[in-house]
Design brief:
By secondary structure, the chain is of the alpha/beta class. It has helices at about 15-20, 65-80, 95-105, 110-120, 140-150, 175-190; strands at about 1-10, 35-40, 50, 85-95, 125-130, 165. The longest helix has 18 residues, at about 65-80. It binds guanosine-5'-diphosphate. The site of guanosine-5'-diphosphate has 16 residues, from helix 1.
C-alpha cells in the first residue's frame, strides 16, 4: 500500500489538513508516536494510508534526550518503511515558518522543519512542503521564495511546484497538495510496471 506521512510542528494545521485529506475527524491525542489513518482519496482506488508522526510537533517543549529519542524513532520509521512511502509531507505555517527557521539558525541550531526535510531526502522519500495558512500571507510569492531558499531550493518557488504546495487547510483549499500527491502516485505506479 502507498503511504503518505505527515510531519510538522504543533499548531501548523496538521489535524485540519488531515481532516480535509481523509474526510474524517481525528486528533493526535496529544501523544508523540505514530498514528495511522485510512483515507478517502477519490483518485486512489487502492489502499492508501496517511500516517501522522505527531512526535515531531512536541519537540520544542521536551528535554534534549527525549527529543533525540523522538527523532530517532521517526527516522527509524521512515527508514524501515521508505519503500512503501509515497511522499513525506512537511506541513508548515507559512506565516511563521521563515521567522522560526531563522531564529533557530541564528542560535546555531538546525530548525526542525529543515532537519525533517533533510531526513526525508536522506532515506529516499521525496519531501513535499505544504505551506499552510496562506490566507494570512500578503506577500505569498516572496514568502514561498524565502521558504525555498531556507530549504536549499533555488527560487523562484514556481520551479518547485512538484514539492512546494501552498494551501489553506481551514478553507479546504488543498488542491496544490493533492496535485503533488497525484503526480507522485502516478509516478509510483508507473515505476511498478
Ligand atoms: P496541528 O496542531 O498542527 O494539528 O494544528 P490544528 O489543525 O489543530 O490547527 C491549529 C490552528 O490553526 C487552529 O486554530 C486552526 O483552525 C488553524 N488553522 C488551520 N489551518 C489554517 C489555515 O489554513 N488558515 C488559518 N488562518 N488558520 C488555520
Amino acid at each position: 500500500d502507498a503511504e503518505v506521512v505527515l510531519v510538522g510542528r504543533s499548531n501548523v494545521g496538521k489535524s485540519t489538513l488531515m481532516r480535509e485529506l481523509t474526510g474524517h475527524d481525528f486528533s493526535t491525542g496529544g501523544k508523540p508516536g505514530v498514528t495511522r489513518q485510512p483515507n478517502h482519496f477519490d483518485w486512489a482506488s487502492e489502499g492508501f494510508m496517511f500516517t501522522d508522526l505527531p512526535g515531531f510537533g512536541f519537540m520544542s517543549g521536551v528535554e534534549d534526550e527525549r527529543r533525540e529519542q523522538i527523532k530517532t524513532d521517526i527516522v527509524h520509521y521512515l527508514e524501515e518503511n521508505a519503500d512503501s512511502i509515497l511522499a513525506g509531507v512537511v506541513v508548515m505555517d507559512g506565516k511563521a515558518a521563515v521567522d522560526i527557521i531563522d531564529r533557530h539558525a541564528e542560535r546555531g541550531n538546525v530548525p526542525h522543519d529543515v532537519e525533517m526535510y533533510g531526513f526525508l531526502e536522506d532515506v529516499g522519500v521525496e519531501p513535499i512542503v505544504a505551506v499552510n495558512k496562506t490566507d494570512k500571507i500578503d506577500d505569498l510569492d516572496d514568502r514561498l521564495d524565502d521558504i525555498c531558499d531556507r530549504l536549499g531550493l533555488f527560487p523562484p518557488w514556481q520551479q518547485w511546484s512538484d514539492r512546494i504546495a501552498p494551501i489553506c487547510a481551514k478553507r479546504g483549499d488543498i488542491e496544490a497538495l493533492e496535485e503533488c500527491l497525484r503526480t507522485r502516485f502516478h509516478e509510483h505506479n508507473r515505476d511498478d510496471l
